[in-house]
Amino acid sequence: MTTPRAARSPRRRWREAGTALVLLLPMFVLVIGLIVYPFARAIWLSFTDKLVGYPERFVGLRNYLYLAQDDAFQAVVRNSLVFTLASVALKVVTGLAMALVLHATWRWRNFFRGLLLLPWITSTVIIALTWRWMFDAFPGRGFFNSVLLDAGLLARPLAFMATPAGAMAAVVVANWWRGFPFFGVSYLAGIQAIPGELYEAAAVDGAGPWRRFWHITLPGLQHVILVTTLLTFIFTINDFNIIYVMTRGGPGTATQVFATYSYEVAFNQLRWGRGVTIAIFVVPLLIALIPLVSRALLRERTA
Amino acid sequence: MKAWKVATVAGLAAFGLVVLVPFWWIASMSFKTYEQIQFATSIYVPRPFTWENYTGLWLDTRFPLWLRNSAVTAVVVTLVTTVVSCLGGYAVARLRFPGRETVASLILILYLVPPALLFIPLYRVLAEIGATNSLLALFLSYPTFTVPFCTWLLIGFFKALPAELEEAALVDGANRVQALRRVLLPLAAPGIVASAIFAFTLSWNEFLYALIFIQDERTITVPVGLNLLIYGDVFHWGQLMAASVITTIPVVALYMFIHRWMVEGLAAGSVKG
């Protein structure tokens, strides 16, 4: 493999670099115009008091200082963390269970894998609307109320979505439901990559199913668990769709998270500078996590 | 039957139930009358069964228009994404140039940049060039998440193809473009189709940018339109569920087509969760 490349003349190498530049050009234009430039504008806006309809003025760190002592924003940080950590933890546990069940499935495994993956390809808006209605007491009692009433566990309909804890539970469940199949399928692939001899050897040594799971399966899945957890953490802490559609951040600020609060401040209160600053508060976290994820993913590519 | 088989069947049933209940809820509600829904008669199955939500949705709402907008957007974005990502993915996977590894890492990082960070400044940029309130805003903004993702997928697919074939074509006097078109693209076709379907699905389901960049009720896409069906004067839950059924079907159909490739892509841990 290396011989023909080493033998390439400098002229040919320049030509190859030129071709690469031409092929990458459309992507560079797109990335610079629509990601890098807007991102730079976002940073700039966060240092201004931009209100819609007025020219912006530079205010230094005032937006950041304001948010640091804003009660509503502190609730947002708390809610975002609760929402994200609860969803991710549930996804890891149920994803593992799903992978073990699918791995043990001896017939129609592909069919079941496809079936269980359905939530993951369904529109988040549809998922959010449906779960909202299933939790809600209106119209017509919703799903959970109907089941609980018919089972005699409830005397009258409960408005889950009207209580802070109920609303948070509802958005976590909807997010979990959408995301756990991805975890299950990734872990299944991870389990299938573990050499069977390890299990056979452990069985010969008298290790029971629990010990085999603990000492072989879990360590074998370490890498894929890390990658899925980090990726999902990044996407969930910035989630907008599920919460906006299900609760609009309410009741009160009970489910307000970074993205929905940023939207609320920017597009309802029309304070763009502050709205952008809310979103930017996540950036240090991203800067800490993204290298971890990309290193893990790139390692997989080269391995 | 052995104990582990019983446990497996129980597990499959439990997961099947969890996954299917919301889908059954959508489908069953879409076949109920307004009164059945409102007064919670016949909760679990639509009895009597009606098509009125589907006909009402089609004739009395702007749903057909929203469906058209969604389809046009998804097709345009998929085409743009596929071309840009194929060229970029090929360059990174196959050509040797200084900074190649950096470009690969940057593509991955861009894929991880959340839309929640960009929507306000992107709105300003699009407004300044007069692209808001038209589908052009979506043609321009959706590639910001589809292109990094699809390029990342395609780098993997291109890298997995044997380099010797292309080298042979080059030795035989073909230039890069011919080698790409005649040799590599046909071999990479499954990967390209899979990445195109991902781009289509991501565009089809996108909500945040569509909500912010477009105000005109005739220009919005389905996910935004669905929200209008509940925040109007009357709650059209039946029609909403009918719309959900109609919107989900094309994606499920596409996905059955690529299920196997998709799972392989998932296994590489490279897909959004």
What is this structure, in a nutshell?
Chain A has 303 residues and is mainly alpha-helical.
Please explain how this structure is put together:
The complex is a heterodimer of chains A (about 300) and B (about 270). Helix content of chain A is about 75%, strand content about 0%. Chain A contains 15 helices and no strands. Chain A is flat. The two termini of chain A are about 20 Å apart. Chain B is globular. Helix content of chain B is about 80%, strand content about 0%. Chain B contains 13 helices and no strands. Chain B folds into 2 domains: about 1-60, no CATH class; about 60-265, Orthogonal Bundle (MetI-like fold), CATH 1.10.3720.10. Chains A and B meet through α2, α4, α5, α6 and α7 of A and α1, α2, α4, α5 and α6 of B.
Question: Key features?
Answer:
heterodimer; A: 303 residues; mainly alpha; 2 domains; B: mainly alpha; MetI-like fold; 78% helix; globular; disordered C terminus
Overall pLDDT of chain A: 88
CATH fold-level label of the largest domain in chain A: MetI-like fold
Classified in CATH, the superfamily of the largest domain in chain A is: MetI-like
Order of helices and strands of chain B: HHHHHHHHHHHHH
Terminal residue distance of chain B? 36 Å
Largest interface: A-B, 104 and 104 residues
Note the gap between the termini of chain A.
Answer: 18 Å
Largest sheet of chain B: none
Q: How many strands in all of chain A?
A: 0
Which structural class do the helices and strands of chain B define? mainly alpha
- CA radius of gyration of chain B is 23 Å
Percent in helix of chain B: over 70%
For the largest beta-sheet of chain A, the strand count, sense and barrel status come to:
none
Relative strand content of chain A: under 5%
The CATH topology of the largest domain in chain B is what? MetI-like fold
Contiguous helical run count of chain A: 15
Task: Extract low-pLDDT stretches of chain A.
Answer: none
Q: Kindly state the mean pLDDT of chain B as a whole number?
A: 86
- Tell me the number of strands of chain B: 0
